[in-house]
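Tokens as discussed.
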């Protein structure tokens, strides 16, 4: 396996990991995403280090540029998608807080509904 093929393998791993993270967001598996994001950061560091050491032949440069472009575009799309989900969850949380406040405001405590006994015979 050449150095460039190893670099291609890293790019493919990154693309697959990005797809997996997006799928986890879609399926609302938020607790598992942090581990995947750590893996993604490690993979980014591997790609950066590989890019520094790999000597790219002239015929491979267009392919590498296309892979870079695809990687950045997919990451940008995932960021936009995650931002939309974040906004949606924030809106749902605001609505839930409003409902809780309204329910608390109109919820009558047992003391308010029961009568007060006053002895008027004295």
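Sequence:
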């Amino acid at each position: 396996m050449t150095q460039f093929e190893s670099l291609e393998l890293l790019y493919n791993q990154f693309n697959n990991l990005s797809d997996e993270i997006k799928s986890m967001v879609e399926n609302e598996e938020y607790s598992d995403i942090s581990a995947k994001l750590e893996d993604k950061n490690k993979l980014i560091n591997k790609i950066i280090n590989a890019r520094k050491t790999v000597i790219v032949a002239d015929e491979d440069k267009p392919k590498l540029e296309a892979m870079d472009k695809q990687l950045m575009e997919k990451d940008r799309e995932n960021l936009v998608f995650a931002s939309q989900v974040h906004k949606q969850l924030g809106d749902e949380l605001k609505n839930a807080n409003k409902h809780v406040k309204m329910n608390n405001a109109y919820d009558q405590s047992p003391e308010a509904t029961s009568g007060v006994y006053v002895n008027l015979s004295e």
